[in-house]
Amino acid sequence: MNHDYLYNPYPSQRMTTFGKRGMVATSQPLAAQAGLDILKKGGNAIDAAIATAACLTVVEPTSNGIGGDAFALVWVKGKLHGLNASGPSPHSISIEALKEKGINEIPKFGWTPVTVPGAPSAWTALSERFGKLPLTEVLAPAIKYAEDGYPVSPTLGKFWRAAAEHFKNVLNDEEFKHWFETFAPNGKAPEIGEVWRSEGHAATLKEIAETKAESFYRGRIADEIDAFSKHYGGFLRKEDLAAYQPEWVDPIGVDYRGYKVWEIPPNGQGIVTLIALNILKGYEFTGKEYVETYHKQIEAMKLAFTDGLKYVTEGRSMTTSVESLLSNTYAEERRQLIGGQAMQPEPGTPPKGGTVYLATADEEGNMVSFIQSNYMGFGSGLVVPGTGVALQNRGHNFSMDPNHDNALDGGKKTFHTIIPGFLTKGDQPVGPFGVMGGFMQPQGHLQVVMNTVDFHLHPQAALDSPRWQWMEDKKVLVEPSFPNHIAQALARKGHHIQVAMDGGPFGRGQIIWRDPETGVLAGGTESRTDGSVAAW
């Protein structure tokens, strides 16, 4: 890519990191180094991604865990592969079953929003299909950190403390006591710099490694999850775990100014990024700091998100097709709605037809874009006794409206926020990218892609650039570093601009780009967290 790597209009704490033989970029230095160590032991980018992901369940439990979901985009031997390792709702759950219990809105915590965890299946599926090293060796660094402990990093400590204080106020029932035993063993979250360990987490990782996750889905750990669920009236059963398999899927993408931007197909929200880019490619942008650039980005994202929230769910339940949502005809129709003032967005009618992110690359040309989450930080607030497994609360995203595409149903996958991204040009990979952070993710993807393709920023500058996030209606949050004169001009266009003085929910991203001629890797990591690029 023809970037001037000396140019960074957004001074950052870091410069772009370069490497030749391998690279791992993620939000925790210990996890990034673990992935690089696996590369140095003869593993490939896929092995490194699994090692990093497993480590992140230990060294960043505020954002992900063994009991969460995962998605991956994997470039191997000239082809991009997609893996959807998100789990469905329990087969016995339904809108009617919840209403019989007096539940009219899906809660954030407890057993009701718990869905089948997919992350362990992702590690195994990736290892079996593309890995070089045995899973026991790949998960060894994560097991060691869980056994021996590690000092809590600054951003991790901040979020851990906030979660523990919040949970003390809202998680008062007996079923939540195991969370406090595991993550606040002395009545509080570990302090920054304090060593935290989890023997139960280590034992579970060992069992996953030795059985290739069979114990988790069809063995002893599955029995533990089943017993815990039954004891507290949950819907999840070992039959749900036993029936689960991750899905290899064909990635979806759109052409954008000579590049191809790739995402995982629904039930993920990556299509929201693609819808917005499809709208925006009808414009010419000559400068990033122009008011019209931001205005059109925000308006396109509004339109894309309202469509995503209306139509995106598990593929078999969507009332409109991916092809129609990404058609040029529909993009032009939606583009015509963008005027000079901020709009109140409404979904269109297409023609019928707390998360961690990591990127890895190796000298063979393999590259992985991987994302993993429990959702809303620690997830459901439930930890399976003695296992360290914090269960996700992904079912909170289901709708209780039976006529909605994303209506709750047994054995169904919900609208999913976590999305890995990948960029190609012609038949060559440019590389993996991602921005974690709930509904910020497709908005972060759009901003990173445009920073790269339209505004020619190198990876670190593309991540450091001040971000905005559309929230609802005409409300837009911006970072304190966002140009004030642009914010004022956007307000005059009718946008309700708010500066997020507390740091705000602007996501945390990673990028690795590969030069097709030299094979040199260029990585950027997130300055908004404890991010790190480990290069070789």
UniProtKB/TrEMBL annotation:
Domain of life the protein comes from: Bacteria
InterPro entries referenced in this protein's UniProt entry, alphabetically: GGT-like_enzyme (IPR052896), GGT_ssub_C (IPR043137), Ntn_hydrolases_N (IPR029055)
Listed Gene3D superfamilies: 1.10.246.230, 3.60.20.40
Protein name as annotated: Gamma-glutamyltransferase family protein
